[in-house]
Amino acid sequence: MRTLIKNGTVVTASDTFAADVWIEGGRVVALTHPAGRAHGAPADREIDATGKYILPGGIDAHTHLDMPFGGTTSVDDFESGTIAAAHGGTTSIIDFAIQKKGGTLTEALDTWHQKAEGKAAIDYGFHMIATDVPPGQLDEMARIVKEGVTSFKLFMAYPNVLLLDDQSIFRAMLRAGELGALICMHAETGLPIDVLVERALQAGHTAPVYHALTRPEAAEATGTERAIALAEMAQVPVYIVHLSAQRALERVMEARDRGLPTYAETCPQYLFLSEEDLRGKPDDEFEGAKYVCTPPLRPQHHHQHLWRGLANHDLQVVSTDHCPFCMKGQKELGRGNFSKIPNGMPGIETRLHLLWEGVREKRISMNRFVEISSTAPAKIFGLYPRKGNVCIGADADLLVWDPEKRYELSHRNLHMRADYAAYEGKTVIGAPTHVFSRGELVVENDRFLGSRGRGRFLRRSTFGL
Ligand code: URP
Ligand code: ZN
Ligand code: ZN
User: Which atom of ligand 1 is nearest to the CA of 158?
Assistant: First the structure.
């Protein structure tokens, strides 16, 4: 099957140019001048992209599908989550396998393969969350890297659940450095946070907003600084996940100014939502539970710093940290005790729609939009040049993007399983009309044409930047 996307404007992280894009065998086989000659045999299918952009499919480097967390399980599995992702123009995800306390990394990887196989509708890779790093485990890291899982997430937060002490973090960093793997850090200093939570509850402060008030910016700033310092001592790169606050960003900027290989991502919720959302409604403060995620939403003034960080290359990636829970039966677990609200928000479907608002408002260029949503995660996480670019030989993971298409981000339009939408009532301008995954048209005008189980596991290369 030969497909031609004609008359569109290709946008990559570096260039914007008129071109016809030819797809065959799941790959881009030619880019030709629209007024020039056809490429070989005629196409079996033509898509007219006049007035539209042709972009590489989005890569969401931070998702939690079918993840046990906070006494429940995130409500999107690999089927619903990847179908929702495709609707939003994301064609690859990197999810997190989690080592059980006392279990092995290999067991965790097997478990996550079972969760994804036969279900995922787009391509997927895994990071490995290590919750325990005894010396024997360090050898197992090598086995995991050989399996194409080339990044490890470590936690400085959630004592007794996920938190690792500095010695374990440091050992894991050294080993990751030897293996060419990347350490992704949840950088919040978690032990004092637990004390603040305890004191808030003792004082009778049970509402969702106390989730933010007990996880202050200072906790994230010190965590970020410590993560960077440990990585500097180990002489390895580090990637800070879900960065939410100005002071944490400043720590990243200082490190990068010193020439350290420090990378960081933020998420749409930290660019568009704020602590105000956590306060809920005047007549129902528990509505704020919809917005409980970690790190917490920050006061509005942080937005401008994060946008500037994206524009100035201080932040490299926008991923979603999609970790959806329903209000009914899940977020409700924390009614009367904010610390029991499962942490996480839905977002896998709305990332590109929201980021495009940054393009419309001239906060970032179109090329930067492509870079932070696709090219940079592909490069950082060992998927480039197969993914993350529109070029000959790359997988034909492509979007036809209509910059004028209006789309309401309401629960009734979206495909994620959470029983609410975080941006209910918001209409965006700019959305995909066609989504290709390895040359297969999986979404056309909001209709899903793909199938569950067609997504392939992505064996990623080691860190090469
Ligand atoms: O609230 C969040 N972020 N839930 C997922 C777990 C994590 O720390 O990424
Ligand atoms: Zn985290
Ligand atoms: Zn996460």
Answer: 8
